[in-house]
Amino acid sequence: MRIALFTETFLPKVDGIVTRLRHTVEHLQRSGNQVLVVAPDGGLTEYKGAKIYGVPGFPLPLYPELKLALPRPSIGMALEEFQPDLVHVVNPAVLGLAGVYYAKMMQIPLVGSYHTHLPQYLQHYGLAMLEGVLWELIKATHNQAQLNLCTSTAMVEELRAHGIERLDLWQRGVDTETFHPSLASQEMRSHLSQGHPENPLLLYVGRLGAEKEIERIKPLLEAIPNARLALVGDGPNRSALEKHFAGTPTHFVGYLKGKELGSAYASADAFIFPSRTETLGLVLLEAMAAGCPVVAARSGGIPDIVTDGVNGYLFEPTDEEGALAATQRLLEQQDERETLRQNARAEAERWSWAAATRQLQNYYRAVLMSQSMPSAA
Questions:
Q1: Do 174 and 161 meet the contact criterion of CB atoms below 8 Å apart?
Q2: Are residues 219 and 304 in the same domain?
Q3: How far is CA 190 from CA 187, 197, 235, 265, 364, in A?
Q4: Burial code of 33-64, b = ≥16 C-beta within 10 A, e = fewer?
Q5: Which of the chain's termini has less CB crowding within 10 Å, N or C?
Q6: pLDDT per residue as tens digits for the range 162-188
Q7: Integer angstrom CA distances of residue 289 from 110, 346, 351
Q8: Which domain holds residue 17?
Q9: Is the domain of 24 the same as that of 76?
Q10: Does the N-terminal peptide bond of residue 71 adopt cis geometry, omega within 30 degrees of 0?
Q11: DSSP 8-state code for residue 24
């Protein structure tokens, strides 16, 4: 198959969507497919054999890490040259609309996928009044597609409730070699805790954005004796978080990648994830693969991954006391923590990127088959 993949974000940016797309592109190419990635220009022209068509863009005012790339006629020329069998638009917002347009114009089957819960983000950026309008735009765009994929059952249900049609689930995936319990190290633990490896170590990995609600970790940090917090990642809310956590034993680590990131997960005592806007929460699966017990809000796609009391702990999204009680229990019950670690790893081992991409290829084939049937009749 020849697949044109439109995405609003790609390398060199680091986030959950890019992680999924990297592995997807690699496995699609490995399986003999040809992929063209149309994305905001990040200076790359190729990835794992796939051609990257970079579209010039400018930083998004509210979120400078994200580039806004506007559709342009040259995209149509690139598609004419590539001759895709199918177009897949990932979170179509601006650049992705070009994918929708050219798929319709060139009569190419269209698949959409929903990864970022933008309507919920709006309230964290003072734009809650636009939520209804945004849902209408999402519906109008996604309903152009023959198939719309979500990364959790909760998002399938939510999109269905907002009138989006032809929905299905794109299973989760995780790299169980890069994220492994064997990568735990005293050196990494000492780095994350700023020289206090003997103290309880809480970890957060991900974007430092307002929608992640990282400030809600502070009461836990203050209530647990000698606890230390490591925040791995970066984002537009970093300076506000540095002020919020001033005077606490919090280490802003910045980005870590590959085995270094795997070691960070494996070396911490608890992975704390307070976000209520997750469509999936890929970092949770990475933490679990590394054997790091998870304490997370029971929200969005998170219950698809974490089974409370079995491979992690869940707390009600607005229950600050519940979050604290779960974290304290995790730190105090060493035998239970070890069981959670083993169960978390076992859960992660069920979800390889190869399997997730095989499932995606089957979706692609089903769409292509359904499109060819009328003409064959």
A1: no
A2: yes
A3: 5, 5, 24, 13, 46
A4: bbbbbbbbebeeeebeebebbbbebeeeeebe
A5: C
A6: 999 999 999 889 999 899 999 999 999
A7: 33, 8, 10
A8: 2-173+352-376
A9: yes
A10: no
A11: H
